[in-house]
Amino acid sequence: MSERKLGVLIHGAGWVSTQHIDAFKKNADAEIVAVSSRTMASAEKRATEAELDVPCFDDYEQALAHPGVDIVSVCTPQHVHAENVIAAAGAGKHMVIEKPVCQTPGELSAMRDAVRQAGVKTVVSFVLRWNPLFQKLKRMTAEGAFGEIYCVETDYQSYCGDWWGGYPEGRTRDMGVSAFLLAGCHAIDALRWFAAQGEFEAADPVEVFAYEGGKRGDSTTMYDPLTNSWHEDGLPLEYAGLEMALVRFSNGVLGKVSVNFECIQPYAFPVEIFGDKGSVKNNRVWSHTLLDQEDWEELPDIRPDSSDVSHHPFQGEMDHFVNCILNDRESHCNLEDAIKTHEVVFAAQECYRTKRPVSLPLG
């Protein structure tokens, strides 16, 4: 065990940083030693609201050089993640990286090279891997409750509009890039997670074919799922609101995944898993291990049924990562693994251009 607590720099003062802060504050082996942001005002505001008596910075390089920083929690907007990660790796810091990790395949490669060269540890916030229902289903899969998995389907369904504070940037091609990248990558990662048989294993995608579509187009009419209401004069999405992909994995499993930014409904994250001895539909299971089963067995575990970051299991992620650092082991959700999820996103974009299946890994 470490002789001192691991020092954490929170970089970025947006919505998700509140959950990173809470999780690290509750971990007995870590302590927050600094907060940085693009402006001093936002850094100081986040520190004050979190009751943190720590230095604040609007200069990232100065923050990285602050004494006692072991971990950087990258909570900035996605378009600066790559440069933030490369700088932190150069400074020899371990990293929690919010998703999506970058904007382009080229950035993926540069980040991977920087982390490999530095020899630092990473975890990417595909935080649903720590969701209680997901953990239960993975454990059951590993124990053979559904037999050998041969098909998985996952979907990210959430109307993307100006009810969300990040919409002005996230709606654009330059900043959000695509629905799959902005948020649908959670569904792609879940697809990989459940397509693998091992409890802490994600499957490797080898081929992708995808379509983009939807009906919003340039519409300025906005729906608010929180109030079930509509209003005019909104800003349109600059990319397709609906994407669907078929994914073939190296272990033979077939997957179907979609992201729907146009659905008129509350947030939903459907999951279906099919094995040769059982099936899963969200929190309902049918298994050869349940003798005399006459109806679906419902699991009571917390489901991924909210877009609110306070509902997400960040505590499990941060506790896991601290443990990885202290015991010198890699996370199952490190940057190397997350690259495979992101490559599905970029393969889908290539497929829209070529109208042909795309082989992975890219390049």
Q: Specify the biggest β-sheet.
A: 9 strands, mixed
Can you name the CATH architecture of the largest domain? 2-Layer Sandwich
The share of residues in helices is 25-40%
What integer is the average pLDDT? 96
Strand order of the largest sheet: 16-15-14-13-7-12-11-8-17
E-strand count: 17
Oligomer: single chain
Strand content: 15-25%
Report on the architecture of this protein.
The strands form three sheets. This protein has a nine-stranded mixed β-sheet with strand order 16-15-14-13-7-12-11-8-17. Helix 5 packs antiparallel against helix 10. It contains ten helices and 17 strands. It is 31% helix and 23% strand. It is an alpha/beta fold. The protein has helices spanning 17-25, 40-49, 60-64, 81-90, 105-118, 132-142, 167-170, 179-194, 314-326, 335-354, and strands at 6-11, 30-36, 56-57, 71-74, 94-97, 122-124, 149-157, 205-213, 222-224, 229-231, 242-249, 254-260, 271-275, 278-281, 284-287, 297-298, 358-359.
Q: Could you give a quick summary of the protein structure above?
A:
By secondary structure, the protein is an alpha/beta fold. It is built from 10 helices and 17 strands. The strands form 3 sheets. A 9-stranded mixed sheet has the order 16-15-14-13-7-12-11-8-17. A 6-stranded parallel sheet has the order 3-2-1-4-5-6, sandwiched between helices. A two-stranded antiparallel sheet has the order 9-10.
Write the topology of this structure.
Blueprint: E1 6-11, H1 17-25, E2 30-36, H2 40-49, E3 56-57, H3 60-64, E4 71-74, H4 81-90, E5 94-97, H5 105-118, E6 122-124, H6 132-142, E7 149-157, H7 167-170, H8 179-194, E8 205-213, E9 222-224, E10 229-231, E11 242-249, E12 254-260, E13 271-275, E14 278-281, E15 284-287, E16 297-298, H9 314-326, H10 335-354, E17 358-359
Parallel strand pairs: 1-2, 1-4, 2-3, 4-5, 5-6, 7-12
Antiparallel strand pairs: 7-13, 8-11, 8-17, 9-10, 11-12, 13-14, 14-15, 15-16
